[in-house]
Amino acid sequence: MSMALKQVFNKDKTFRPKRKFEQGTQRFDLHKKAQASLNAGLDLKQAVLLPHGEALSDWVAVHAVDFFNRINLIYGTISESCTDESCPVMSGGPKYEYRWQDEHKYKKPTALPAPKYMNLLMDWIEMQINNEDIFPTNVGTPFPKNFMQVAKKILSRLFRVFVHVYIHHFDRVLQMGAEAHVNTCYKHFYYFVKEFNLIDHKELDPLVSSALQEDRKPVRLETSRPDAAALLWGGCVGQGY
């Protein structure tokens, strides 16, 4: 990362404190292996592949935490521009709106300003990844039977942060000269969730229609499918709770 981007993506801009893996644990070693693959300049499609001998749950857990940290950081850089006034609804353009629902206060899907939605989303993800019953840190402690279900929900909700940033705050990303970094983060995320089928394809399908409306410059992703998922644009949308 260039010095200019390091100044943009600094710890003071982090929306939430980073979750770290403890040294000496199996998942710390796996995290380092994943980072080494990326830093080695490997093709992102290759970098996301499950390493030989590793369990899929461990690989997904490590990436869910890493994506949380990085997307948290990306949103932190534009959060000053994302206010109740500028973003009274958590959306991805005029046709797509995200409503919040949880097991506590918001038991029915509820329309919220984007900053409020982001706070609830990040709080909820933090609660999941800090829960030892869901994301165990001790070697030998098995993942719960519903782990993949929870991980898919985490990644699906993190995708919505990309949606909002690209559609409503990409101008700010451009002003910071951070579009290459954000696009790389998105491509890494995209290839990972596609490799392991972690996000419903319907949530990714509207990418092209949004891009055409927003007139963003596309970054082509390597894929065998000539559909909406074949393109990464500076605008993307989805819907759901």
Automatic annotation (TrEMBL):
Q: Which InterPro entries match?
A: MOB_kinase_act_fam (IPR005301), MOB_kinase_act_sf (IPR036703)
Q: Which GO terms describe its molecular function?
A: kinase activity
Known Gene3D superfamilies for this protein?
MOB kinase activator
What SUPFAM superfamilies does this protein's entry cite? Mob1/phocein
SMART domains according to UniProt: Mob1_phocein (SM01388)
Question: Which UniProt keywords are listed?
Answer: Kinase, Transferase
The record's section on PANTHER family has: MPS ONE BINDER KINASE ACTIVATOR-LIKE MOB
What is the name listed in the Swiss-Prot or TrEMBL entry for this protein? MOB3A kinase
Q: What is the lineage of its organism?
A: Eukaryota, Metazoa, Chordata, Craniata, Vertebrata
